[in-house]
Amino acid sequence: MAHIIVVGNEKGGSGKSTTCMHVATALARMGKKVGALDLDLRQRSFGRYVENRLAFLAREGLDLPSPEYRELPEADAATLAPGENPYDHRLSSVVAELDPVCDFVVIDCPGSHTRLSQVAHSLADTLITPLNDSFIDFDLLARIDPETSKVTGPSIYSEMVWSARQLRARAGLKPIDWLVLRNRMSSQQAHNKRKVGEALEQLSKRIGFRVAPGFSERVIFRELFPRGMTLLDLRDLGVENLNISNIAARQELRDLVRDLNLPGVTVDF
């Protein structure tokens, strides 16, 4: 069975699609068979990223490892069981297709609360939640006391993950391994950076997730998207001498894949 990696957060602009593409491509370059799904049916940033990649490779005559992207099939009303939600049917059918032929399936969720996102979270073996390193994003995970910075209780997204965990437990599935990524962290030892870090560590022990550094803000990520390339493809494009920023970004990706602790994966790039 494929190991399902869900990248979710109910807020846009946190780096979900960039994370999806880099994790999926890193695994593909390690020789893993990787399926890819984008549940943001309107924006499709992850889907567009993969499409850009395939189009660029075809134009340039290149053959680079890539995830296998699938669209969600339309649900034929005649095939639905009585009372079955069509979105549940669409997602479960495409996962069932990928499951026996893939080592991993990477699923990008929309930056909002949807039925598809709920179902995807219940399927997750590994859940990655990218957050911009600020209390604005932290508010999706938990409420804090503004005077003491103490966590007062879980927030909307954490409650949704809790529900997904309960569904998996009732189905006899293994618990979700939840990793929260701190994206766009300041390079300075800023007061806000320390406060967010302390709040995340406090909350991680309370509701059960791991914390890891993610991707810094870098121009290279915006430049790679139109061609569907990732940090690991630069040398295949003839970039032999990486600048300091690109080297640091590759190290961030290497650390992320290592922190995911995925089955059968040894980081070798």
UniProtKB/TrEMBL annotation:
Keyword Cell inner membrane: no
Keywords attached to this entry: Hydrolase
Main EC class the enzyme belongs to: hydrolase
InterPro entries documented for this protein: DNA_Partitioning_ATPase (IPR050678), MipZ (IPR015223), P-loop_NTPase (IPR027417)
Pfam families, sorted: MipZ
EC nos: 3.6.1.-
GO function term, MF aspect, one: hydrolase activity
PANTHER family registered for this protein in UniProt: COBQ_COBB_MIND_PARA NUCLEOTIDE BINDING DOMAIN-CONTAINING PROTEIN, P-LOOP CONTAINING NUCLEOSIDE TRIPHOSPHATE HYDROLASE
Protein's recorded name: Chromosome partitioning protein MipZ
The organism's taxonomic lineage, starting at the top: Bacteria, Pseudomonadati, Pseudomonadota, Alphaproteobacteria, Rhodobacterales
Recorded name of the encoding gene: mipZ
